[in-house]
Amino acid sequence: MDVLxxxxxxxxxxxxxxxxxxxxxxxxxxxxxxxPNLLRYLIDDVITPRRFDLVPALAFTVVGVVxxxxxxxxxxxxxxxxxGNRVAFSLRNASYDKLQTLSFQYYDKAKTGDxxxxxxxxxxxxxxxIGFGFAQILNMVLMVIFGGIMMMTIHWQLTLITLVTIPVxxxxxxxxxxxxxxAFREMRQAMSNLTTAVQxxxxxxxxxxxxxxxxHEVTKFxxxxxxxxxxQVGASAIWAxxxxxxxxxxxxxxxxxxxAGGILVIxxxxxxxxxxxxxxxxxxxxxxxWGLGFHINNYTQFKASGERVLELLNEHIxxxxxxxxxxxxxxxxxxxxxxxNVTFSYPDKSPAVTNINIDAPAGSxxxxxxxxxxxxxxxxxxxxxxxxxxxxxxxxxxxxIRNLDVxxxxxxxxxxxxxxxxxxxxxxxxxxxxxxxxxxxxxxHAAKLAKAHDFIMELPLGYDTxxxxxxxxxxGGQKQRIAIAxxxxxxxxxLVLDDATSAVDMETEHEIQAGFKExxxxxxxxxxxxxxxxxxxxxxxxxLDKGVIVQRGKHADLIAENGPYRDTYNIQxxxxxxxxxxxxxxxxxxxxxxxx
Length: 596
Ligand SMILES: Nc1ncnc2c1ncn2[C@@H]1O[C@H](COP(=O)(O)OP(=O)(O)OP(=O)(O)O)[C@@H](O)[C@H]1O
What we know:
Number of domains: 2
Low-confidence stretches: none
Organism: Paenibacillus harenae
Main location: membrane
Strand content: 5-15%
Protein name: ATP-binding cassette subfamily B protein
Membrane topology: Multi-pass membrane protein
Bound molecules: adenosine-5'-triphosphate
Largest sheet: 6 strands, mixed
GO molecular function, one term: ATP binding
Radius of gyration: 37 Å
């Protein structure tokens, strides 16, 4: 019931369909009760007194009732279908909206396959129940009430005797629901584990094949598949026990009726027509009871699925706008970024960065160097409000970014990450992703700056070439250049290059950096790189080690002092330095010789 209550906002908006569908079903059910009465009339008032002149009128009445009932059933199906689909539609959209607002912290743990199954199979179960299951349960209750009243009017003592097995039926049905609900919950979870395995396998197919781990993957899949199968078998076993008990109880009712009713007819206390009508009416009660299992099944599936969808909808959003959040735009912001005593830990971990102070005036270039895991990307994530800083503060033009509208802040930052994600769309659309209105000239200009134009033009359809999921068919460097073009076109105040040129060769890196110079002009830029060549022109280089700033300054100052920066420089330029030393030694020797 709690699930129904929590989902109310979705189906209540469609209540006109709900009521129309229920009203039509109620009328159809009420009309159904007319059949046994017509049967009684046929036997007691037409056949027994041999008044066959009444048969045509009776036949027309039957046809009319059947036709009208058919129309009502159509109305029920029509509106029920609309209701279910509309509710599923708005739930699907609400879930998708929620997925967009959930913060990175949620996605750190979320499983794609599990989310997919919530948005598909679970929503389908909800659609089924809201559209039809709910009305069917109501119908069942109505049938029992209408049928019971009708039977009581015919012979109340016979009614009570006949319905003696009803408590057994109800008890069995309730026990069934108690057992089948956990089974369904497990089944949904097992299904989601299965989809997660398939999704991860397809996404990571290159890794799987490169490590020749196909058989391991097959085993992993079959373990999960077996778990799903076990759940299904378990549920079938519960069903298998339930049906015979229900059938037995239902048929005992019929037997009691045949015996008791038969005796009453023989004794002349019940007319034959009444007895026949009674026998039809009893199925009005037993039939729905029989279906109780099916309806409970439907309901429990709905409940299990509803819980999973609601869990997603109620998920806490870690990063959200405060009240009266300040909206920033390209025009209102200059791009002065400051990190003030920032310390941050990921959930349940020791601090990833500690006491960070960085002052990046508008238009400056800040370089970041450090071993993997030293906290460089974390600083950028914090700046983009992927996570909220709890200790210390980050300010943009003097405003704490926690007071800014998150989307407007992110619009001012264009990131190029080490890993490039391309959508399965044309290259043009991929480059234009971050902006709403953009011309072809702007797209090409950005591509030229990112040194992507030439290779794009070599592709069969140029800018209209569709790049598949994860940008299949393009090399790592090409993908990265498209990502750079995508960042450039955003015309951001702040540019983040997180190992942005790691996938291109030195020569292309040099060319792209020439493009960056134009791009960086007037923008605050954070460059994370492992190559000194990418950092040497920065206004300030920050060297991080285990989340702490261990060195800072300009390139010339940093290579002049002992420390990790000079060590990295020496390693990267070892060959160059060696050649330079040999060359200068040779020159000195030559000079010496000539003086001699
Ligand atoms: N989403 C996350 N959840 C939990 N811990 C994380 C997460 N991202 C990073 N960390 C941890 O935070 C620390 C800093 O990681 P970060 O990614 O900032 O390092 P980095 O310097 O950018 O490394 P790299 O050069 O390899 O990209 C590491 O110990 C890492 O394990």
